[in-house]
Design a protein that fits this description.
The chain is an alpha+beta fold. The chain has helices spanning 2-18, 22-45, 52-80, 87-109, 120-141, 153-179, 236-240, 267-270, and strands at residues 114-115, 118-119, 193-194, 223-227, 230-234, 244-252, 256-266, 279-284, 289-293, 301-306, 309-310, 320-322, 335-341.
Length: 354
C-alpha cells in the first residue's frame, strides 16, 4: 500500500509539472513575454545599482520563455496540421522570439557584441520591438477564454516550477560565464560593457535617436539660466573658470559604459533654488531636453571638460550635463539652457522623443 501511494504521488506530480495544455502554455508564455518586455524597458531606465534587481528580473523572464519552448513547440506542431488564417504571422512571431532570445543571450555572454555595425544590445531591442505588434495580433486572433481553473493549485504549481527553473537556469548561465571567463563576466549590472574609461577619445560618440553633432561657435554660444532671480546668460569663458571635478560613469543604453573625470560647474552653483521650484529643465541646442527632480540639483554637473581636456564636439562641446546614477540619455549634450520650474519632474515622456 505504501509503495502504491508513493507511485501515485509521483504520477500526480509528473502530470502536474510535465503535462501542460496548450491554452495554459500560451497563457504562461504571454505572461513571461510581458514580464520580459516590461523589465526590459525598465532596465533601459535603470542607472543606479539599486535597480539591479530589475535587470536580473529581465534575464529570468527571458529564460522562462526558453523553458516554455518545449511545451510551445508541441502546440505549434499541432497547429501546423490545421489550416488557419495567419499561420505565417504566427511563424514570424516564433522566428522573432527566437532571434530576440539568441541576441539577448549572445550579448549577455559576450559572444554577440557587434554585428553589422550595431551592438548586440540594439539587435536584441530591435527584435523585441518587432515582436510587440505580432504578440498583440496573436492575443486578439488566438485569444483564449479565461477559466476558473487558470488559478488552480496545479496551474500555480506549474508557474512556480517554471519560475524556479528560470532562476536556476539564470544562476547556472551566470556561473558558466564567470567560470569560462567569457566577456559577459565583465558587464555592469545594466548589461553594458566597459569602453574607453579615463580615455575620453576612446569613448563612443553615441547620440540619442535623431540628433546629429551640431556646429557650435564657442564665441557666440551663451548658456541661458532661468530661476527665481530672472534670466541671465553666461559665456563659455565664464563657465570654464569653475573648476569642480567629478568622477562619474556614463552608461549608455546602446550597451557600453565609460568612467571619466569630468570638470565644470555644479548646477547648484549656477541657479538659485526657490520654494516653488519642483524640477530642473536642461535643454540642448538641438532641441533635446530632459527634466530632473529638484532634489537632483546638488548632484548634477555642467561639464566643459573631460580627462583634463575640453569637450570634443561629439561629446557635447561646449557644455554637457553629467548626471551620476542615470543612463546616458539623461546626460544632455550641447546644453544651452537651464531652467528651474514649478512643473513636476514626471511631466515628460518616459524616454526622450527627439
Amino acid at each position: 500500500m505504501r509503495h502504491r501511494r508513493s507511485d501515485g504521488r509521483r504520477s500526480w506530480l509528473s502530470r502536474t509539472l510535465l503535462r501542460s495544455p496548450g491554452r495554459q502554455t500560451n497563457q504562461a508564455l504571454l505572461v513571461a513575454l510581458v514580464l520580459a518586455f516590461g523589465t526590459g524597458v525598465a532596465t533601459i531606465a535603470v542607472g543606479s545599482p539599486n535597480g539591479a534587481l530589475i535587470a536580473l528580473g529581465h534575464g529570468v523572464a527571458g529564460l522562462a520563455v526558453v523553458l516554455l519552448i518545449p511545451w510551445k513547440s508541441r502546440v505549434v506542431r499541432a497547429g501546423l496540421h490545421r489550416p488557419r488564417f495567419g499561420r505565417w504571422l504566427s511563424l514570424l512571431l516564433a522566428g522573432f522570439a527566437v532571434l530576440t532570445l539568441v541576441a539577448g543571450v549572445g550579448y549577455a555572454t559576450g559572444t554577440f557584441r557587434n554585428v553589422a555595425g550595431l551592438t548586440g544590445m540594439w539587435w536584441h531591442i530591435a527584435f523585441a520591438l518587432a515582436l510587440v505588434p505580432l504578440v498583440l495580433w496573436h492575443v486578439v486572433a488566438r485569444g483564449v477564454e479565461r477559466r476558473r481553473t487558470d488559478l488552480s493549485r496545479r496551474a500555480l504549481m506549474r508557474a512556480g516550477v517554471v519560475s524556479a527553473g528560470a532562476i536556476g537556469l539564470y544562476a547556472t548561465l551566470a556561473g558558466l560565464i564567470n567560470v569560462l571567463a567569457l566577456p559577459g563576466s565583465r558587464r555592469r549590472f545594466t548589461g553594458s560593457y566597459e569602453t574607453g574609461s579615463f580615455t575620453p577619445e576612446a569613448m563612443p560618440p553615441t547620440i540619442w535617436l535623431a540628433d546629429v553633432v551640431p556646429v557650435v561657435d564657442a564665441e557666440g554660444w551663451r548658456l541661458t539660466i532661468s530661476d527665481g532671480n530672472g534670466t541671465r546668460k553666461l559665456t563659455l569663458s565664464e563657465l570654464s573658470t569653475r573648476g569642480a571635478r567629478l568622477q562619474a560613469t556614463l552608461d549608455c543604453t546602446s550597451g557600453w559604459y565609460s568612467q571619466q573625470e569630468w570638470a565644470g560647474a555644479p548646477l547648484a552653483t549656477l541657479v538659485q533654488r526657490g520654494p516653488e521650484d519642483r524640477s530642473v529643465l536642461v535643454h540642448s541646442v538641438t532641441g533635446y531636453w530632459v527634466r530632473f527632480p529638484i532634489a537632483d540639483l546638488d548632484h548634477l554637473l555642467l561639464a566643459t571638460g573631460v580627462g583634463g581636456l575640453p569637450l570634443a564636439p561629439e561629446h557635447g562641446f561646449p557644455a554637457r550635463l553629467v548626471a551620476p546614477n542615470r543612463r546616458g540619455y539623461w546626460w544632455v549634450k550641447w546644453v544651452d539652457r537651464i531652467e528651474l520650474q514649478g512643473t513636476p519632474p514626471w511631466w515628460q515622456p518616459p524616454f526622450p522623443v527627439s
